Amino acid sequence: MKRIVSLFACGALLLAPAAFAQSAPADTSLPAQELVLKVIQVTPEVQAARAMLDRAEAEARMRQAGPHEPQLSLIPQTRRIDGDRRYREWEVDLSRGVRWPGKARLDREIGAAGREAASLAFEDAHHAAARRLLALWSDWQRAAAIAGLREAQLAAWQRERAAVMRRVQLGDAAARDRIALDAAVAQAEAAVAQAQAEADTTRLALSSAFPDLPLPGQVHLPATVTALDGSDATWIDLIQQRSHEIGTAAAIARKKDAEARRARADRLPDPQIGLRVISDRGGREHAYGVTVTLPLGVSYRAAEAAAAGADAMGAQADLAMVRRDVGRDARQVVTLARARYTIWQRQQQAAEATASSADKAERGYALGELGLDEMLIARRAAQESELAASRAEIDAIEAVTRVKVDAHAMWHRHDPGDHDEEMPVAVATEAADPMRPALPALPAGQ
Predict the structure, then answer these.
(1) pLDDT tens digits, residue range 101-138?
(2) 2-431, which class in CATH?
């Protein structure tokens, strides 16, 4: 009878993680969309990008107005003639530079491209913050989930030690069994302390980066993880098409090209046209005229145009590198989502197999067919397999979510209707429900 009680206590250890998951009232594997958008909007990185956008808009207005402003010159003077009296005289010049029509058009083009680049950079800062939040959130989820499992395992070890101590007192177990359980409990306590420290560290990192994001008291994962549906090519194309990083680089390349053309056009300098009014001999003589000033010299402007042309070529090269890198990263995140789902499946299978093995070992120990050491080895293997399965589950959720974030299917700041002409219906549905652990199937052939 005492061995049967011990068997039930051993079984409670393996059932503890499952009971922990089944008691979950809600899925906390991902924060809500409205919370994410709210906390991302106030991050310093996004605010800095917002300031750069304001600057770009101001620069566009500057380009629209042009670099030339009216200039007023006033020259009062006194004329003295020998043998005659003194005369008060003055001269007034009002002049302003005039852009050639082609330069004004190029300035407007430069301003528009700069504003577009800053706007896309602002969106990209929001996207980068979303990816950073996902990484920190997943780190905390992993650590918190492991801490919860470790605590459940410790409680089960403590129950088993109490059962063995009763058996030792009754003479039904050897004293070395109690010592072995004492060691197991001590190891479990150390594992709990380490897991809790990691959970506290990751929680601090997350709350420091996003202080306004409320965190749940406990981690509750979904009952299962759904694979990333649809073809890899569809997701890779969506990520590349909607990449703000590519859009920013393309807008910068257009701006640099316009600046190069503007520098070449500036080899013909803008004239400065003005009106001159002169009053001489105390107002007895007046003169009126028109002034035209044209800077001379082409060496500096030629070198400036060459430098701007080199900048334009460099921007095109940067755009090519960004396209390459974004395409590579898109393929990597999609491949990783597939791989991590497969890994989670295998870890689940391994957890079930080791749990079954531990059950048999516990029955063998209860019947006296196996020793305590063999049972403890099987139980520890089942525990570690359960921990690995929990990590793999969060890894899979993170990988699938990363694909959706990069494809702007969730946690994206675009207005309703943006990208609808490009987004498959299934992905658009997923974007409206960011708490779902995985995407529904995409249309065939996408």
Answers:
(1) 899 999 999 999 999 999 999 999 999 999 999 999 99
(2) mainly alpha
Query: pTM here?
Result: 0.78
For residue range 34-80, list pLDDT tens digits in order.
999 999 999 999 999 999 999 999 999 999 988 888 999 999 988 88
Phi, psi of 289 (to 5 degrees): -160, 170
